[in-house]
Amino acid sequence: MKSKHWPIYRAIGQLLLWFVFIASIIYLHDPVSDAGIGFYPSLSIHSITIGYITTHTVKYALLGLVLFILTFLLGRFFCGWMCPLGATIDASDTVIQPKGKTKVQTNMSRIKFLVLLSSVLIAFFGFTVSGYIDPITIAYRAYELFLYPFVSFIGSKPLSWILPGYQARDYPFYYYNWAWVAVVFFVVLGLSAFFRRFWCRVLCPLGAMYAIASHVSLFRRVVNTDKCIHCGACVKGCRMGAIATDGVGTIEHECIKCFDCLKNCNYDAISFTFTRPSKNKSIEYPGKGITRRDLLIATGSSVIVAASRVSLFAASHDSFIIRPPGALRESQFLDACIRCGQCMNVCPTNALHPCITEAGFYGMFTPRLISRIGYCDFTCTRCGQVCPTGAIQKLSLNSKQKFVIGTAYILHDICLPWSEQTNCIVCEEVCPVANKAITLEKKIVKNKKGLQIEVLLPVVHEDRCIGCGICENRCPVSGQAAIVVRKPKLSIGERYG
Amino acid sequence: MKITRKNLFLSIISATGFLAGNYLKGLKRAFGLEKKTDLVIIKTNTVTEKSIYAMVAKGFEEMGGIQQFVKKGSKVVIKPNIGFNSTPERAHTTNPILVEAVATMCKHAGAIVAIMDRPVHNARLCYRSSGIEEVAKKVGVDYVYMDRDKFKTVKVPGGLNLDTLDVYEDILEADCIINMPIAKHHSAADLTLAMKNLMGVIGGNRGYYHINLHRNIVDFNKAVKVHLIILDGLRILTKHGPSSGSPADIKESKTIIFGTNPVMVDAYAAKQLFGIEPSSIGYLNLAAQSGMGSINITAYSTITRTV
Fold first, then answer.
1. CATH topology classification for A404-497
2. Range of the domain at B15
3. Are B71 and B116 part of one and the same domain?
4. Which residues in B lie closer than 8 A to residue A380 (C-beta atoms)?
5. Nearest to B244 among A348, A426, A436 (CB)
6. In Å, how far from its chain's centre is CA B139?
7. How many Å apart are CA A112 and CA A127, to the nearest integer?
């Protein structure tokens, strides 16, 4: 392969796959779409591995495995062609790294292998950290929870012309704590200010896994030494710093097959072909430069994180937040959730939102149900269908309608019938439970003028309430609703000590 | 068209004819010469797709023909009750086949038909699960998701509780509004029928309208004048309405009521379908007091037909 057009083909391919990614988000956001196809987070072999080590529950591992096996053949093509975060980083270069500064053979690139090592070690202690450092989940969260709502906020009119049924959605939708999602996203993009693809070269644990496989891959860069004059044009143009300073040697595990060097070479010296790794040796092995000190720091810090599991749990147990229906028990849920945020994207009522500190340190970016913003639809089981790890179990409609996520409690001080003696009944009207978990009691009461009047007072039946939160959502009282969904007050919590 | 003596003459003739015709119609109406029926009640023994179509056809015939309401090229808005994300079996939403039959007839009469509602639940889900989306696609008419920005503020003439209301633009611009409520129990309003169904064309915070609900329902009907009401009483929810209830709460009453006055339709349906005295329902009393229609159902002139 020698054509100088390959960089353009790659850019087009990357753009198309980025569109697939965007389309999957927009498609899944449509409340009538099939939520069973939310496969994107499981493209990440890193998430799959971590998830498998911690909880043995990964639903769609196949795609990620196929991509990983393909890496042994084609090299680290995923990073240059498929990764949505990589595409975003490349696109943001025009703003963040306009000069296209790159760094040849940096010693820092060993750090990503240490990150990978730590995340795997921590996984053996039961912690799932892939949600915080996996590029797919970072990109997914950023696009779902920050960028798409933002675009829909500023461009709801144009979107309603393009997307079917867009007006019917609850727009402009937004996610609580979206700013923190955006902060993580912009920090990752902003790292490119040091040099191009800083995140991919230095920190990305998924990149590290692909790098290891890529070291022995068959599809390689070959330089014709008769033609090469060692001008260094390819070295300066390589976004991954994967070319040695002489322009001949390749760091195979860093090459993401962007083919920029084909275009940059004026002497036709470079080509990409299938060769045996032994014939065309990489000048560096993955993780070169890792010292004993690095390893000690990585293992030591992961042991410290793992050992803190007990104390962290003491701080985050029995949280007050409401999890989506079908969620595992809190401690299991935190281990199983990879924080991809798809449940929040598919929720038709904008009810699920990312946590920051509400669920403890470990619960960052896990879903919580905020009834005042959106309620849990009685006939919807989408979050369970889309969850790639089973942290939210797939429920049948029948079992979902019996799944208790909380209980409604009336705040008598601000409830209109209770405090103002005016009839209201909205909570009773919207209650979807077959025999109504909220009923109205007719009572003769004295109003503020001292007159005896008849009022319908809402009363919650805790044995029937499933905590869907539509009563809190629709409560006409301004600000704080007069009926709130909390954990059932007598449920068995996870409170230690 | 070129202005010639002949053309000018012809257009003057036709304009005069048109005006005279309208004038005669007005005279007829003023002297009560036109045959006037308050309500048309259509019953059936078995509810099938075919019988529903026949019922609708019969109803329009007894109301004096569909041309009375739907002119060629006019904009017709059908307003069913699809307020909740429930399937038709649960009797929370207007029977989709009934809507289909009405939409088909309007379309054949040459009208531009749109079906719309402002549901309580997510609109996309409600249109899908109620079967309305499917029906609209089948008949080939528009189904409109109401756009938040397209509500217009109108004055409520003689409003009991409200001075102004936000009404959907398409409703205000429509030549004919066909209100197609389903009859069901409602915890706050006692029953939700034609008058209550108009909440689905009003913008703003629904929750607030439930404070002083009965007065507000009357005001909705003062702000929005409906041209025809086709009340779905095929299967009615008698308990735990409007959004829950079990199959035991559903009564097969197999009736459709046609009418033009919402107060009369509601009063009749309350008594005949649910056995509830119209005078015991707050909004019907208030409506009768403000002269929107009588709730003395014995004084109505009705036609009852069985298909």
1. Alpha-Beta Plaits (3.30.70)
2. 1-31
3. yes
4. 85, 125
5. A436
6. 19
7. 19
